[in-house]
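Technical note accompanying the year-one report. For the benefit of new consortium partners, we illustrate the data format agreed upon in the data management plan: each record pairs a sequence with a structure-token string. No post-processing was applied to the example shown here.
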Amino acid sequence: MTTRRGMTTRGHSRLNSSAAASATDEMGILGEGATEVDVLRRDLELQERENNRLKDQILSLQAMLAQRPSAEELKSAKETVKNVELLLAGANRENEKAMMETDR
């Protein structure tokens, strides 16, 4: 009987060690799969962060664009600047003439 128990125990130990080995292999495969999933999750998180950053940048640029004057307003402002410069040039010429007459 003692011999029989020894064989039985050895048989169980073989089963247990092979079951443990196969579980380790399965766990290794699962572990690799989990690592792949983790990598994909991290990549997805990074992409989501980048996406959110770009969305924020778009909103910021749209807000800046909304504050910018229209093309018509810019054209009008440029014409006004040109007219003011012409008036200033004319006033400077008149001042120079007046200074020359005063010097005489």
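Partners are asked to follow this layout when depositing records. The CA atoms of residues 54 and 60 lie 10 Å apart.
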